[in-house]
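Let us work through a complete example step by step.
Step 1: write down the sequence.
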Amino acid sequence: MKRLICLLALVGTLTGLPTLASANTPVADGYAAERPTRGMSMASVERRYGSPDTKRAAVGEPPISRWIYAQFTVYFEHDKVVHAVINR
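Step 2: predict the structure and record it as tokens.
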């Protein structure tokens, strides 16, 4: 798997195609918005980014909750970040 990723990155570099490393970077906006990273606690997210505009209650098992900020939405499993996405 590691060899495949390296090979794809090399082919992308040689052909001018976007590489895997740049595939998740939003190009349309011209910048990658800073957002919380996986594993951060709710407390550390709130300390760093302030209070969210909206807090959605946890649903399901394991409990997944989300905090909505103006530029991004953060998804938590229990009290840890599992994903953060840029809002459109």
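Step 3: interpret the result. DSSP finds three helices and four strands in the chain.
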